[in-house]
Amino acid sequence: MKAIDKTLAGKVFLLTGGSSGVGKATALSLAQKGAKIVIISRQAKNAEEALREIAQKTGNDQGDYLVADLAVQASIRKVANEFKQRYSNLHVLANLAGGIFFEQQLTPDGIERSFAVNYLSHFLLTNQLLDMLKESAPARVITVGGNPSFLKHPTINFGDLQSLDRFSGMNATAQAMYARVFFAFELARKLRGTNVTSVVFNPGVIKSNLMRQTPWYMKLIGAMYEPFAREVCEVGGYLATSPDIESTTGVFFNENRQIVPLHQRFDVAIGEKLWAVSQSLINE
């Protein structure tokens, strides 16, 4: 176990997707620092296995978990309420869950699954927990983005926001990725003056199960990157804990902890419109 950061004592870190991929890799980084992590997973078994592994590798056995299906809005609201009942504060919310879906599916709420899981779940959970974040301030929201090379020309197709008319798994994933970044920047704008910050980041190549359900050609691409995949997401842990960036907000970090000036390419008007549309999709 690495040296414990005593400044993290008493702080609570909530991570979505904590049983695999970027969520688990960030949880590992935080646990190494001695943080109290709470992970959200779709299945209790997966969460328990992840926390056991994290405890074995870090010596930090204070992890906890909650179960929620991030494709279902009622489940997200329920897990937010459960968290509030169990904990009295929240210092960092890490929006890290995601998936790749190559077949069009609608959730029980009538939302396309890729858009629901990869973007709208983060929007809804964050809004459900904003009051708690403000009460716990200084607090942070960190959101996983993507490789900056794919974010040079961000667009939101409001005419087919959920890719319902002409579905493509990769296009739907990209649309959700753009939406997450617009959301993180707009959230930062809305939170100015609250002592709650919002940043978005590229985690780099992280070990995950994302390619497991993809077509053969995607598996081949994934195999090429596998030797470079890391088990620990250092940038995620850094953004969640570093005092150096306590007041930094509304920016994009790459995997090397450097700010990439992407916010200059993301139109504020689009961020505002996406926020309003998202509120209508969660009936708020």
From TrEMBL:
GO molecular function: oxidoreductase activity
One Pfam assignment: adh_short
InterPro entries on file: NAD(P)-bd_dom_sf, SDR_fam
Keyword Zinc: no
Swiss-Prot/TrEMBL keywords: Oxidoreductase
Stated name of the protein: Oxidoreductase
Organism: Spirosoma pollinicola
